[in-house]
Amino acid sequence: MDLSVVCLLMLVLVCHGDGHNETFQEAKCKKHGPAIRFPFRLDKQPEDCGYDPGFVLSCNERNETLLHLPTSVTLNIKKIDYKSRLIIAADPDNCLPRQLRNFSLSKSPFKFADQYQDDYALFNCTSKYGDYYERIPCLSVPGYDIYAYGSDNFLGYTDLTNCTKMYNVSSIPSEMIGGDNILRLNWSEPEACGVCEAQGKFCRWKNNAKLETECYEKPKSNKGTVCIRFCFSFLQPI
């Protein structure tokens, strides 16, 4: 039998070992990657393993953990803090500003995590004099530099003679413009799962109706995690 089929069957068994997801274990795309558990799930796992479609993650060929937003934006998930309901994300190609034009959280369960947000205008400049702190290095190429100006910038002191306005972006945290390539996002639902994590427990659906969640003791077995690692160690290069 094809190994990918065997792995998928193992995932199903991990999530539904006794007709309930009490045997489900957290998964990882790679050994030191973020732990994936409810409300998140991997795209190859049954829907019961996660909260809703907005929490579906996937593994790429580099064993990175990816989140695909509804606006065709893909983020590399570096860390998931289940207690604080916080994810630390980055751009897979180390250039978050490249995704600015399509970036939106309106149809996802996430929001920016308590960061100052501003509106920005992006300009493409063949030459420019004045302050350079607004320059976006990862978008710039020789002869064409990209600059982002926030709504609090006074452009009257900036020479934009050789610049062309590209587009505007609204309500974006400043860290998406800077060069750190780090983005912090929160989720609010299911709220009760944060309480479970604070108690040192895991969270899951209370029944098949998917109307209520409950806390349960962390399983002692690591079979779920081992299965994911086993599958991807063969299907993808480490």
SSE topology:
Elements: H1 3-15, E1 41-42, E2 56-59, E3 65-68, E4 74-81, E5 86-90, E6 110-112, E7 117-125, E8 145-150, E9 163-173, E10 183-187, H2 192-198, E11 202-205, E12 213-216, H3 223-235
Parallel strand pairs: 1-2
Antiparallel strand pairs: 2-3, 3-4, 4-5, 5-10, 6-10, 7-8, 7-9, 11-12
Helix pairs in contact: 1-3
User: SS-based structural class?
Assistant: alpha+beta
Helix content: 10-25%
Number of E-type strands:
12
What's the N-to-C terminus distance? 23 Å
What is the averaged pLDDT score? 77
Give the helices and strands as they follow along the chain.
HEEEEEEEEEEHEEH
Strand order within the widest beta sheet: 1-2-3-4-5-10-6
Give the overall form: elongated
What would you note in describing this structure?
There is one protein chain. With 238 residues, this protein is of the alpha+beta class. Helix content is 14%, strand content 27%. The protein has helices at residues 3-15, 192-198, 223-235; strands at 41-42, 56-59, 65-68, 74-81, 86-90, 110-112, 117-125, 145-150, 163-173, 183-187, 202-205, 213-216. Helix 1 packs antiparallel against helix 3 (223-235). The model is unreliable at 3-23 and 223-238 (pLDDT under 50).
